[in-house]
């Protein structure tokens, strides 16, 4: 799969990211680095421990990473979960978390298919 096909599959912004990094080779490098980042695992660990402040920091970081890489769907989902956790008062976040997980997993699966 090419970088452009990757961005189409995950509903990201190929043109935006390529404009930042300049070449497809650099784009692949940064996209593959995303797959090695531990932020998503930190988010899941914080949720498992009911540690909302740490979950907030992790999803906020994930939001920034997805914005920098123009991973639009993940960014939008991360924004929703970040705002739930920003001033958390016990509201249900299961749906927003499931959406972040789905978008993240779609990206990881697509990264494995990059040429």
CATH class: Mainly Alpha
Strand content: under 5%
Quickly count the domains.
1
Weakly predicted, low-confidence segments: none
Q: Total strand count, please?
A: 0
Considering DSSP H and I runs of 4 or more, what fraction of the residues is helical? over 70%
Mean pLDDT: 97
How would you explain this protein's 3D organization?
With 115 residues, the protein is an all-alpha fold. The chain has one domain (3-111): Four Helix Bundle (Hemerythrin (Met), subunit A), CATH 1.20.120. Helix content is 77%, strand content 0%. It has helices at 3-9, 14-21, 24-36, 39-48, 52-68, 72-86, 94-111. It is elongated, with a radius of gyration of 14 Å. The termini are close together.
What is the element layout, followed by pairings?
Layout: H1 3-9, H2 14-21, H3 24-36, H4 39-48, H5 52-68, H6 72-86, H7 94-111
Helix pairs in contact: 4-5, 5-6, 6-7
Task: Name some characteristics of this structure.
Four Helix Bundle (Hemerythrin (Met), subunit A), 0% strand, 115 residues, elongated, mainly alpha
Summarize this, please?
The protein is an all-alpha fold.
